[in-house]
Amino acid sequence: MVEERIPLTVHGMSVSGNCHKVRLLLEQLGSRYRWVEVDSAHGQTHTAEFLALNPNAKVPLIVRDDGRVLTESNAILFWLAEGTPYLPADGWQRAQALSWMFFEQYTHEPCVAVARFIRGWTPADSPRRAELPRLQERAAGALAVMEQHLRQAQWFTGDDYGIADIALFAYSDVAADGGIALDPFPQVRAWLQRVRAQPRFVPMPAVTAEVRARFNAPD
Amino acid sequence: MVEERIPLTVHGMSVSGNCHKVRLLLEQLGSRYRWVEVDSAHGQTHTAEFLALNPNAKVPLIVRDDGRVLTESNAILFWLAEGTPYLPADGWQRAQALSWMFFEQYTHEPCVAVARFIRGWTPADSPRRAELPRLQERAAGALAVMEQHLRQAQWFTGDDYGIADIALFAYSDVAADGGIALDPFPQVRAWLQRVRAQPRFVPMPAVTAEVRARFNAPD
């Protein structure tokens, strides 16, 4: 019996939006991959073994069957999507998709994702909870920029759904976990629904009951 | 007399690293462009006119002669470099370059550039100065990741100098302005020197005397 060759291994935390981006695209591409669960909320990206894969101590990353490593969720999306319908072939459209992906990492994720992390993975008496009002205010600003774009476009990747949508969807879809309301953003809510309706869409796996209880508690 | 057609207009603040990236690449490409100076440190990205160009209120951005706009410094670099020696043609190398460019925006810029902004553009009694020790500590961590890469590679863009080097150079070269010492990072210092030695390299323009005095003052 010959062991099956798996071309790609993902190291990721399933309930991290940055990691879920990679799973969502791989599922939509119908790719075969192995998933190695890494609990980045509890230090597992700081072991010597993990740091040998990524000295920057972050998930997700992918390892090819020859051992080569690629880090940074949005760079992984770009590499996986090359030559597929999830990344436009036109240079200007690709640049616009990348622009939204840099917006996601610089302006969106550091408030939407960080507010969710603080609410779900730090204790109720954590001093970091003092950061929440400011993060939630900045998150609303990022969502307002998305709302404005969506008044004149269906997607962030160009004419069609693609990797910039996946990048922005991941944490926008769980914004409520960070105490961020989507009610003021009807275009964003409609776009989230369009993403969920895409073929082979998979939702982020459920968090633990402990984390869910923290999400449900008031700030 | 026919007015000369300029294909590209850059809106940027000359002494911002994110904006200088775009100038440096355009100079190295030998491209013709017009530069519109925008003082983002004093609110000029929040005028109605500017927000019509970029609702996210950030420089740099480029405007093509047909009015189309592209935002986000690293997306601009990617678009400008497509088909030139500053961006590898190989898909895996491109993805590695993008990985470093996402690292730059997520892990490097938010400490290296923000420490510089606080030291140079906020008053000596600004409460934001309390953020400096933590930002400087995180900056050292980002520089250590770069140092490790440079022990086994000359560049961040692949086999040759290119846009990931430009992206990381911009604020690394002025790290001292943020009170961040490069002494512990000999590989980074040697790489900075290699970048400065590239053909058609242009340094960032000088800051005002007022900002320079703030940089030179102790924290």
From TrEMBL, chains A, B:
It comes from the Bacteria. Gene3D superfamilies: 1.20.1050.10, Glutaredoxin. This is Glutathione S-transferase family protein. InterPro entries: Glutathione-S-Trfase_C-like, Glutathione-S-Trfase_C_sf, Glutathione_S-Trfase, Glutathione_S-Trfase_N, GST_C, Thioredoxin-like_sf. Residues 6-88 form the GST N-terminal domain. SUPFAM superfamilies: GST C-terminal domain-like, Thioredoxin-like. Residues 90-215 form the GST C-terminal domain.
